[in-house]
Amino acid sequence: AGNSKSSKSTAVPPGPPMYLDLVYIPNHSNRKNVDVEFFKRVRSSYYVVSGNDSAAEEPSRAVLDSLLEGKAQWDSNMQVTLIPTHDSEVMREWYQDTHEKQQDLNIMVLASSSTVVMQDESFPACKIEL
Predict the structure, then answer these.
(1) Is residue 2 domain-resident?
(2) Would you give the distance in Å from CA 117 to the centre of its chain?
(3) The whole model's pTM is what?
(4) Helix boundaries (H) for the chain
């Protein structure tokens, strides 16, 4: 009691890391649900980063920075690919500001120029091979 750290809930409970092929970062990459502990524990070859609402701070720069900090603590330098669902100002600024660190950590941001057209809708798309 009285210790604010003990009352703080984390999105990922303590334990050994989980290795996955593809992870969708929850809640439009909002910092309320994803922190450094998430990326230390949930290790993936691909992370989908959604969010295109700058007023709601989605995607969150803090979440993207948490990926760098969490990945730096992995015991391997496996390739990680970020797949943004939207071309946002936050993503572009983060990419430019941290590009050297991304390279050091073997993180690639996938920019897609492909578009899928279905009936009356069109949307950006990318192909993922696992």
Answers:
(1) no
(2) 26
(3) 0.75
(4) 4-7, 26-29, 36-41, 61-71, 89-104
